[in-house]
Amino acid sequence: MAIITLTTDLGDKDIYLAALKGSILKLLPTVNIVDITNSVSAFNIQQAAFILKNSFYYFPDGTVHLIGIDTVYSGQTKYLAVRYKNHYFVGADNGIFSLMFTAEADEMVELDIMQDLKFLHFPLADIFVKAACHLASGGDINTIGLPVSGFEKKMNLQPVLEKNLIKGVVIYIDSFQNVITNITKDLFNKVQQGRQFVLSFKRNESINHLSWHYSEVPEGEKLCLFGISDHLEIAINKGNASGLLGLNLGDSVIIDFQA
Fold first, then answer.
1. pTM to 2 decimal places
2. What pLDDT does 65 receive?
């Protein structure tokens, strides 16, 4: 069965999400629509990119991922369909693809689909849906657009490496208020090389042990681990790390390795 996933900032209180799903089902009644999330903060492409980047590969090859973030029509806006690692992505060329992808796209086209004027303010339910349904039906990506060689570039904040130090920042806070940093497991292992460490952050808090799971410490105690995204997380076992530790998006964290 064909699969189309949705990653949007439409929420679930208005008509927009229903209009989007209804438009998909009109064109492709047998498709399986999967909500990755419709609760991205308005226009927050960094948040959407983090979620989709760390979830798309759990889906079968050939899945189409419709990205509904910052898609409102303007004269400068380009809409793209991209094939990447055997998945398809349909979204606006607003920098989100550069935030998600770690390698070159396999194929990429700028969509050349006639705009229905009644959907001018809501291209998600028109151009995006037509492209996504075409791809989910097994259609050729090159019949819905013209090949392009690149997309708008935006940069994720990268950790800073100094002698025996990694300086990172908080890039995401999940629904459990676990605090996720931009320090990846690969980077941590590369710098650590088996050494002891101290992870420091706000309020003079610190952690010096890497846990394998949340319940490794008593309830209410803080910990750090590498979660499902392979990014370093700061958490509290059955507690709200962000609120209780005062950690917010953009806050700094430092890992100091034993010399």
1. 0.90
2. 98
